[in-house]
Amino acid sequence: MDEKALNLRGNLILYPTQLQTIDQLLDHIIEKLPARLALLTQTSGQMVAFRAASGGAQNVDSHALGALIAGDLAASREIARVTGTYEECQLVLRQGQQVHTLIAEVGNEFALLVQVNSQTPLGWARMVTLDIARQLAQAVQPITPPASEWSDTDQDLSHLIGDSLDSIWTEEPDVR
Question: Who's near 93: CB < 8 A, 6+ residues apart?
């Protein structure tokens, strides 16, 4: 895994430890259900992470899919709002003859898409998807950046500016 932070829209940053947790949770849902694919996207449409089962959907354009998921979730949220039925952590289900698609809210800023074979019991798929969505919501909470992400120069500059501004107001004027 790349050890760099992922900068998202809206000044959100996911750090390597968060990205590692996201990857583990997506791997877990692929194995546990089993799922055909799992994708975490920001509600702006920016794709965060994608996993596909072997023999699954590796050829899917995950970036285009991320944008479509965001649009679908926005429309579903608005339908729920207009009809007075909006609640946190809702799930959108598309039941198909061969594949079921579930889209779950992950906090306010992210969405999780999971596709399962139609032989997978829907109650099981729903329960596991919502559980992973809750865990992902915890994983993407803003955190204080690791010490290695802070630059000593930035902190020194901040102190220098603050000290300079303080000195403007505290120094006695020189009236010789």
Answer: 100, 101, 102, 122, 126
Homologous superfamily of 6-145 = Dynein light chain 2a, cytoplasmic (3.30.450.30)
Domain positions in the chain are: 6-145
Tell me the residue type at 1.
M
Q: pLDDT, tens digit, for every residue of 126-176?
A: 999 999 999 999 999 988 765 655 555 555 666 666 666 666 666 555 555
Residue 125 DSSP SS3? helix
Long-range contacts formed by 111-114: CB under 8 A, 24+ apart: 111/40, 111/41, 111/42, 111/43, 111/69, 111/70, 111/73, 112/38, 112/39, 112/40, 112/136, 113/37, 113/38, 113/39, 113/41, 113/65, 113/69, 114/29, 114/33, 114/35, 114/37, 114/38
Report yes or no on whether pTM surpasses 0.70.
yes
Quote the tokens at residue 170.
Answer: 């505290």
